[in-house]
Specification:
about 110 residues, alpha+beta, single chain, 5-stranded antiparallel β-sheet
Amino acid sequence: MQTVYDVLEQLEKEGLPLAVATVVRVRGSVPREVGAKMVIHPYGRHWGTVGGGCGEADVIRAGMDVIHTGRPRLVEIDLTDDVTVENTGVCGGIMEVFVEPWPPQDQDEA
């Protein structure tokens, strides 16, 4: 089974910019632990997971923005809404996900 790091190594050879999303803080009940990672490709593909559902879709959109701008972002995923027919992906907690460009940019270039 390939790890996120294996995928990063393979995709770097394509020479395209990528984004890496990492769960950096959790409060309450959430689907993934701190350290969970996902790689986002500029063509919309992704590997790994930071939790699935609408929250993960928000992280993928943020990843596409990070790829485009080259600027990292912190995304807060709030999973504390009431459970409804329209919104069944509620765990009861909040996750913060750091999305950064890959390969990492030199501080001097930023």
